[in-house]
Specification:
434 Repressor (Amino-terminal Domain)
Length: 143
Amino acid sequence: MPKRLPSRDILMDERRKQLGLSWDEVAQAAGVSKNTLLSIRRGGDSYPKTIRNVEAALQWALGSIAAIDEAREPTPVDPRAVVAGQPPAFRAPGYTPITAADADDPAIQLRQIRQRLGATAFWAVIEQMRDEDATLRGSASAS
């Protein structure tokens, strides 16, 4: 039988306690209302940017909430790498910085981004970009 992880709410609460934060502080750091945060904790959907901000407030890597939903562990990040309003800078093992010579090659840039984020977070970002693109295309065609 596959391993069953605790719910989003339980894992988010454990992380909040590890960081010594109140729910008010998490909401403020994420730039969301307490009601939005409660909805996300209970498994509700939200805008990708909002999810990324909550992950950053909990000092989790990009894609950690999606990982919980897929019965995988969230990935903590170094708190010094978290910048308010931006996804955490998570560097996977084997990360190498992009060089000036490689800066113009999109394939190398994409590979570097994947190394920097780690495979799980990379694919979470790709899915978010696809969703955002589909939403934008849908609203543009409705005009």
